[in-house]
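Just wondering, does anyone understand what follows?

——
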Amino acid sequence: MYKDAVGLKKLKIINEELKIGPNPASDRITVSYADAALSSYFKTAEIVDAKGRVFKQLQITEAETRMEINTEDLTDGI
């Protein structure tokens, strides 16, 4: 994960701290992180494809440790 789009100031997150699933997803994905401090560091979450095109952008609520993202409106394979 990165704080900015160009990859500077990398934030190191190990697998136990950030979980995204299920993979593949049918109608929603869940993003959860062990420490609520991460939500104060990041303000938005984006779903992008391999070419960097943004398909969905969401606001992250401070002190949130779990986020449900509806994926029904996304094309298969994103």
